[in-house]
Design a protein that fits this description.
By secondary structure, the protein is of the alpha+beta class. It is built from 2 helices and 5 strands. The chain is elongated, with a radius of gyration of 18 Å.
């Protein structure tokens, strides 16, 4: 009987963990990456409408993120326009 419960228990634990790991609609994971880039001064790549923009985040506002890269000393991107983010 207990051998039959082990897979069920493991599956239930896995589902509960995945449910807790899902991001909310407010983009918490993207904000976490942006904050991490700002704190550690590491580069982050923002994917905006099919374009990839690599920046180091210098400031985060309510509706925008500000950064810099080798080409531009200041870039401002609306948070609503960010489709994905990747940190180096």
């Amino acid at each position: 009987m207990t051998r039959r419960l082990i897979p069920f228990t493991l599956a239930t634990a896995f589902i509960a963990t995945q449910a807790n790991a899902q991001p909310s609609a407010s983009g918490d994971w993207i904000m976490a990456l942006l904050r991490s880039s700002m704190e550690t001064k590491k580069g982050v790549t923002l994917h905006v409408k099919g374009q990839a923009i690599s920046i180091v985040v210098t400031a985060i506002g309510d509706h925008f993120v500000e950064g810099r890269n080798q080409q531009y000393s200041k870039l401002v991107v609306r948070l609503a326009a960010i489709d994905a983010a990747a940190i180096a």
